[in-house]
Amino acid sequence: MSFRTTASVDYVEDVSPGRGALPPRARYASSDAKSLSLNGSWRFRLSATADAEDDSFAGEGYDAGGWAEVTVPGHWVLQGDGAFGSPIYTNHLYPFPVDPPHVPTENPTGDHLRVFDLPDDWPAQDDGGAVLRFDGVESCARVWLNGTELGEFKGSRLPHEFAVGQLLKPAGNVLAVRVHQWSAGSYLEDQDQWWLPGIFRDVTLLHRPAGSAGDFFVHASYDHTTGEGTLRVDSDVDGRVSVPGLDIDVATGEQVTVAVDPWSAETPKLYDGELVTAGERVPLRIGFRTVALEDGLIKVNGKAILFKGVNRHEWHPEQGRALDVETMREDVLLMKRHNLNAVRTSHYPPHPAFLDLCDEYGLWVIDECDLETHGFTEQGWRDNPVDDDRWTPALLDRAARMVERDKNHPSVVLWSLGNEAGTGRGLTAMAEWIHGRDSSRLVHYEGDWNCRDTDVYSRMYASHEEVERIGRGLDGGAGKRRELPFIQCEYGHAMGNGPGGIADYQRIFEAHDRLQGGFIWEWIDHGIKHPELGYAYGGDFGEELHDGNFVCDGLIFPDRTPSPGLVEYKKVIEPVRIEGDGADGTVRVTNAYDFGDLSHLEFEFSYQVDGLPTGAHTLAVPPLAPGESAEVKLPAAAPDGNGDDVQWTVRALLAEDTAWGPKGHEVAWGQETVSPRTAVTVAASQRPVPGERLITLGPATFDARSGRPTTICGLDVTGLRLDVWRATTDNDDGASWQDDTRYGVLWRKLGLHRMQHRLDAVELADDALTVRARVAPAAAEVGLRTVYRWTSDGTRLKLTVSVTPEGHWTVPLPRLGVRFGLPADAAQEVLYFGGGGEAYPDTRAASMLGQWLPGIDALHTPYVRPQENGARADVRWAELGGLRIEGDPEFWFSARRWTNEQLDTARHLTDLTPGDTLWINLDHGQHGIGSQSCGPGPLPQYFLTAEPTEFSFVFSTTE
Fold first, then answer.
1. Residue 677 · residue 601 · CB < 8 Å
2. How many other C-beta atoms are found inside a 10 Å radius of the C-beta of residue 105?
């Protein structure tokens, strides 16, 4: 009798960071030493448990011909059409029992096998050694080369290297990697994201010649008082450092001071240099800048900076966290073109190439450690690893691997200990180590409200009111905290429609020096491309525990299309303020950059009448220094609008091509009304004419029983009535842990999604058709007494709606207006004069007035989870299907091929099927959006309060 034995897998539940890996060191993209990418197709075998198979596959001669194949970098659950398991999404709940350091026996384990030959020009074995580098593996890996075990490691988003020089052979090298989805390390990686096992970053073989560079630290500071930079490169291996552009050629460890142009996110000046040791030449890209905590402020190069930032998870809808450089570049270019100046790498160090791009294009970076233990909040942080000394070596290992890898990036200005891990001795040890290793940067951690370990007071989702108090120094707290700068490391939760209220936050940030900005949560929706659902989110893969579409909370959609939220944010944080009262013919221009003047911009000016520009002019704006303003005279007098709206618009454009944007790219704009339109009037000169079933009034017919219009201006009209419901947004619904201000929940509880319409009277008079009704939810005593008054001058039709609330209304209304249907083929596009792009009361900063001609389908915003969307603000008039609609006052316009109720029940875009009716909403008001999916709701000034209201619309033909 014989038994198959398996190697011990005790290492999976070991709290240590692993064994066998080399000490962490600086990462550089290239050198003159040979390297070999091992990315590509690997043989793959999936087992249900960590010990299901022995390790014989790691030996030479093993026949893996029957195995499947996966692509590395990649996640196995996103390959194989479901044959290799499924993704799991949780926000903070661990998807396994919380019993640290233990993990389930059912532990998906992927054996990876790659056979490779060395290139013909690979140096001989006696010419130095070689290193095998893994840039990212989730969550625990054990490695063999040619049958020899190298070791194992944890720390999914961190690099690990192994010395392999003596094991290599010219051909037939067998690299074997066993990857476990769950390990003790999983307790430290409870970030709000998909759990995705696999080798998801690069695998590279690096030749290390004798005398090659080891670790090195580029110290490049800048003295803003003298304009000089000081360079010193500390290196484990002696050598020389040259920077030809600065005439520098010095030994490592030697300090030199020269005149330089500094690096900043606005002017990311990099000097090309080289570190030369006896065995290797390493290119350097050096940015001179100094980060300091001075006068209670974060200062770079002597100036306080204002973060206009975003949190960025790595994501691709098909490859998950396995991003290529061009995708990363696309992210950075989108950020720069939308006026962002900062990134927090939530919640782990990114692929190193991303930081190269931040250096090159210019973004401030908070580099965050691969650490989150959020799930322990479910048990009051009991057994939290960051307060357990047994875990401290793993925490320090993670801190060191982040700092050592990324320390030579000028874009990195703060180190972050991690995210939502409570507090504890392990975090203090990390902070002490980082402060000791790198005094040239500050340390951040949001969970440390008393700022024991950090250099900045950081919060997430603090309300506007609290941020204002903090800015005024009225927030209380420990003595040290009161002396520190404040940032919102997360705010403006960009889930679905929103975020709302970010313009109000920005005004507060700019009003108080202590407030140094914040980072919107977050950059991209983590939707997974799905053949039936469009994009999948939590629960779509049958997860036992999940957090639904909370993973889709980005400023860009999964395909990287900017959302209305990103367009709004671009406007809110624009680095040039363009304002004016419209009456005196002057514009006030303010430079809101931290460092640069306005010489790189040109300004274009035009008047517009009824939304159409009358001709562009150049506006001469001086090259204002940061913080400076100037009153600039408009070069032409305003035209006579003859009763139409007249506005001026000034746009700040790139004067020349830049690395991130083309000449003419719009950086900022301002717009003011010079003279408003004359309100449309309709003389009530036509008498309604009753018939057997229809009433005729001017260009319309009405059902004689209900008083509802059946045709207007020759178009069939159905279902015109008061509408107060909208398909609730993620921000309307709020988060499960919030209190009773979740208005989406309260609206449903009251029954606003199922309002009943009672007809009280249809009245004909000499000058009007009047329909009286009461609109109210079942089982409630509140209601809206509604009067529809129709008048006509024979060619035009006017509807005046009067609404009077009855009962005790304790909630605001979602919307207030009228809704009606037109035949589906009535129009394929709409011409309107109003705000361009989606907008709501607290998301309308980017809504530029003009005439617009979108297709009907373009009016729909494709949020991954369907919800209220697409409203156009400040609409004066709209034309579609030969029908012209004018508002008094301006109105919100929406058009969609399904009802609000159908939109409300859809869970994916594929649930929305166009019907035979085009539904139009003409709204007098909308409730604000806020960001209550994780933050505060709308500010009170954006509430749509139930109060007596009257508004009108005029219908006519476009001919």
1. no
2. 10
Q: Are residues 603 and 457 in the same domain?
A: no
pLDDT tens string 904-914: 999 999 999 99
Residues recorded for the chain: 959
Contact 512, 389 (CB under 8 A): no
Burial of 54 (0-12, 13-18, 19+ CB in 10 A): exposed
Q: Is 326 annotated in the active site? A: no
45 plus 172 within the same structural domain: yes
Give yes or no: residues 316 and 178 share one domain.
Answer: no
Report which of 731, 290, 296 is spatially closest to residue 487, judged by C-alpha positions.
296
Q: Which residue has the higher pLDDT, 641 or 432?
A: 432
| Residue whose entry in the numeric block shows the structure tokens 């691969």 | 370
Mean per-residue pLDDT for 152-173?
Answer: 97
Same domain, 429 and 484: yes
Question: Burial level of 627, CB count in 10 A (0-12/13-18/19+)?
Answer: exposed
Can you name the residues that pair with 167 across neighbouring β-strands?
A: none
* Statement to judge: residues 754 and 648 lie in one domain: no
Place of tokens 């013919």: 585
Task: Domain of residue 253: give its range.
Answer: 216-290
46 in Cβ contact with 110 (< 8 Å): yes
- Give the pLDDT mean for 305-318: 98
- Average pLDDT estimate for 198-205: 98
CATH of the domain at 835: 2.70.98.10
Q: Are 636 and 646 in contact (CB under 8 A)?
A: no
Task: Judge whether 150 lies within some domain.
Answer: yes
Rounded-to-integer distance, Cα 367 and Cα 518, Å: 15
User: Around Cβ 958, how many Cβ atoms within 10 Å?
Assistant: 12
Where does residue 909 rank: exposed (0-12), middle (13-18), buried (19+ CB within 10 A)?
A: middle
Cβ–Cβ < 8 Å for 693, 711: no
> Is 579 a domain residue?
no
As given in the structure block, the two tokens for residue 880 are: 């579609």
DSSP three-state, residue 185 = helix
Q: State whether residue 932 is helix, strand or coil.
A: coil
Question: Residues 280, 420, 879, 886: which is the catalytic one?
Answer: 420
Q: Strands 917-926, 815-823: parallel, antiparallel or unpaired by DSSP?
A: antiparallel
The DSSP line for 379-438 is GTTTT-GGG-GGGHHHHHHHHHHHHHHHTT-TTEEEEE--SS----HHHHHHHHHHHHH-
Average pLDDT value over all residues in the chain: 96
Q: What angle do CA 500, 503, 509 make, to 5 degrees?
A: 125
Q: How far apart are CA 331 and CA 573, in angstroms?
A: 18
For residue 563, the 8-state DSSP code is P
Give yes or no: 420 in active site.
Answer: yes
Dihedral (C-alpha) 635, 641, 642, 644: value to the nearest 10 degrees?
-170
Give the type of residue at 852: W
CA distances from 901 to 154, 401, 600, 912 (A): 48, 51, 49, 11
On whether the CB atoms of residues 488 and 459 are closer than 8 A, the answer is yes
Torsion sign (Cα): 651, 655, 660, 661: positive
In this structure, are 755 and 900 located in the same domain? yes
**CA distances in angstroms from 16 to 6, 212, 409, 776, listed in the order given:** 22, 30, 28, 63
Position 895 pLDDT exceeds 80: yes
Q: In terms of pTM, does the model score above 0.90?
A: yes
Q: Find all residues with CB under 8 Å of 503, minimum gap 6, and list them.
A: 568, 572, 842, 845
Catalytic residue among 372, 490, 543, 868: 490
Contacts for 538 with CB less than 8 Å, ≥ 6 apart: 89, 90, 546, 547, 548, 549, 550, 551
Q: Do 795 and 884 reside in the same domain of the chain?
A: yes
Instruction: State the pLDDT confidence band at 175, using cuts at 50, 70 and 90.
Output: very high
Both 231 and 172 in one domain: the answer is no
Give yes or no for residue 475 having a pLDDT over 90.
no
